[in-house]
Amino acid sequence: MALHSIISSLQSRLPQDLQGQIQASVSSSTGTLDLDDDVKRWVVIGLGLHNVLTPALRIFVCRIVTKMYTSLVASDHINTQTSHNYLRTYLPTKTKLNYEAINNNKTLYGGQTWKYDRCVKNPFDLSKLFLPTHMAQYIAFDSTCDSSALLAIIINIDQFPLVVQEDANEVRTSVRNCWAHCNFLQWTPTKFAASFQLLESFIKKMGVNATEENRILGDIHKWKTDGMNFINISMLGAELVGEIQTATQALTKCTQEDTIETDSNFHQLQKQLIKIETKFEEFKTNTGKWLNEIGTVCFNFSFL
Fold this sequence. Notes:
This protein has helices at residues 3-12, 16-28, 37-76, 105-109, 123-128, 147-156, 162-180, 189-205, 210-231, 238-255, 266-302; strands at 89-90, 95-96. By secondary structure, it is mainly α.
C-alpha cells in the first residue's frame, strides 16, 4: 500500500487531537527534497534520455547499420581489407572514413597510418568509421554506446531516413547536449514540455513496429508524468522519490564509466549527479525521522 494511503487510513481512525499532531508533523517536517524545480526537470529529462530513448536507439541503429554492413561486405569486401586496398571514402556522401577509430589503431600505431588494420569486422566498427575517434569508444551497440554516439551515427550515415536525421540533430542540440551541459536554469516548464514532445516525435519517425512504438512512447509518457509528480513532490510522495533515485543511481554509474561520456562536460555531469544523489540520501534520512515521529504518536495512542 502506498505511504499516502497508509497515512490517510491511519488518520481516519485516530481522535481529532492526534490527527492534528500528525498533520502538524507533516507541515513542519524537514523531510523535503531540497532540489529546485529546474534541477528536478533536468533529472527527469536525463532519465528519459538514458532509460527510454537510448535503449531504443541502440536497437534501431543496430538494425540499420547491420544491413549497411552486409551490403558493404558484398560490394567492397570491407571485412577483408588490407592496408593497401581499402575503402577510403564512402562515395554516396563523400565521407572520408576514419580507420583510426577501429582495431585499436590509434593506440597501437598513432600517426603511422600505413600500419593500420583496415578490416571492418562487424557493424559497430563500421559505424565508428563515420565518427571522430573520441566518440568511437564503444565496444558494441550496448551500454558502452551512449546517446551522444548513437545520435551522431544517425546524423552522419545516409542509411537513416532524412526526417529521422533531422530530428536526431534537433534532439542532440536541444535536449541531449543541453542536458549534458548541466545548465539547470534553462529547464523551464516550457522547455521541459517541448523536450518530451520532441522525443515523442523522434520515436514516431523511427518506423519501429506498432507494438514497440507504443511501448517506447508509453515509457516516455510515464517518465513525463512521474516527472511532473516529482516536481510537486511532498513527504507523502516518498515512493516516487525512491523510484527516481534508483534510476538516477543507474545514470550516475553510467557516467562513471570512462568509455561512456565523451563530451567536454563529462566531469561536470558526474559532479552534478553525485550532488543530487546526496540530496536523495538526505531526503531518505529525514523521511525516516518523520516516520519515526508518526510511529511514536501511533504507539502512544495504542496505550490510551
